[in-house]
Amino acid sequence: MTTRSLQESTPSFGSAVAAWLLRAVAVVLIIAAALMLFVTAYVIGRERTWLPPPRPETVTDADNKMRNQQAFFAGTIGTEVVPLPVLKVMSQICPEHFRPLKGKPANFVDQFGFLPSSMAPASVTIDPQAKELPLGFTLSRYRPKSGAPSPVLFVGLACATCHTTKINGKLVAGTGNTSLNLFAWIDAFQAAILDDRLTPDAVFQTYESDASNPPLSLEERLMIRMWLSGARAKQEEDATKYGDPYGGGQSIDPGKVPTGPCRTQPFRTLVRTLLARPGSDMQVYTKVAAIYLEGTDEWGQFDGGIHGLYRRSAAAALAAGATPQNMALPEIANNIKWASDFISGHPGPTWNEVFPDKPLKDDMVKRGEAVYMQYCNDCHGHPGKGAWDDGKRHGQIVPLDEIRTDPARVTFRYFDELPCA
Fold it and tell me: Are 173 and 100 in contact (CB under 8 A)?
């Protein structure tokens, strides 16, 4: 072999270094891929431990009734909003947003008219970590929007948040909460999300400074960081479409947030969720509905166009902020169904149950019955013997020109499009 051919067959120093670097890069990539697979397998394995075990099957009618009541008062319906540690410290880190009523108690439960969880019926189990929260605030291990398992507890709203109230010092389930200014609280909540003081480190420090709170794990801290970053980015994006929240003690000012106690804006929520339109010009406010004996109504919702109690309840959950992804989870779908079963045959309280010290006089009852039968019975019906006797127009859609009540509910923009969305 000649010297020239020998030199040609011997790799140059540069090519040898390049080959070594390629092998090194390949090894690094293989190690990185292996680490990613390990982390993925670890997360999948950990996710299985974050969710609670399936609820045991109920057997007796009594068990079913307790299950349905539990779902109504404390069952998640897919409205997961905020990690529990964040909610517990928001009003401490950003107090001016959550204390619009000067001289009143500092906690947001009283400030915005929520009911305390201590008012729950004795047969309802309240998670120990939710006892400082309002009645109807529920805890789950599901992330908002995706429904994926979460290492940190998320707070959502159960039916009882809006559909229970206090009358004469007694808890009444099934009617709208007459003191709750939910949209004012939402405005304060959104203002706090945008507040620069609400940082992950501030949340961790404030939360763990309370000896009654358990220390946060690394997984919980990571989830809170991810959620806060995403929630703030979403709120900043929404501000460009819907405007900034007021906060700063202005949330409860009817000139700023005019919804008021016991009222909601469900159509605006549905227009934003289903039609991706701002809906900011929709001055359509509805009272939080009474939901007694819902099983007697075949049709319902804003135009009477939703058939079946389960569908109506699912639409109500969606209007309350639930997401389709979370609502599709078996536990949440069952909660909506079981809460619906609770209100299906749930009667309203009698006068004597609520006002035992103020008995009605027979002549007052007869006079009221006569007025009701003349002006209300044709559409709403009346209690019969062991059942509900429908009026002759029960289940019909009465034209607006004839009924002449709440015209904004059926004349708002997108009204014709929304049922098909």
Answer: no
- Among 87, 94, 109, 133, CA closest to 249: 94
Higher local confidence (pLDDT), 404 or 330? 330
> Mutual orientation of helices 84-93 and 182-194 as an angle, nearest 10°?
80
Evaluated on CA atoms 412, 414, 420, 421, the torsion sign reads negative
How far apart (Å, rounded) are the C-alpha atoms in residues 204 and 297?
48
Contact 141, 153 (CB under 8 A): yes
Q: What is the pLDDT of residues 152-197, one digit of tens each?
A: 999 999 999 999 999 999 999 999 999 999 999 999 999 999 999 9
The 8-class DSSP code of residue 417 comes to T
Q: Which of these, 143, 131, 137, 136, lies nearest to 80 by C-alpha position?
A: 143
Q: Is 11 exposed, middle or buried (0-12, 13-18, 19+ CB in 10 A)?
A: exposed
What whole-number distance in Å separates Cα of residue 391 and Cα of residue 394? 5
Query: Mean pLDDT throughout 64-87?
Result: 96
Question: Which strand (E) or helix (H) includes residue 369?
Answer: helix 362-375
Q: Give the pTM.
A: 0.85
Average model confidence (pLDDT) across the chain: 88
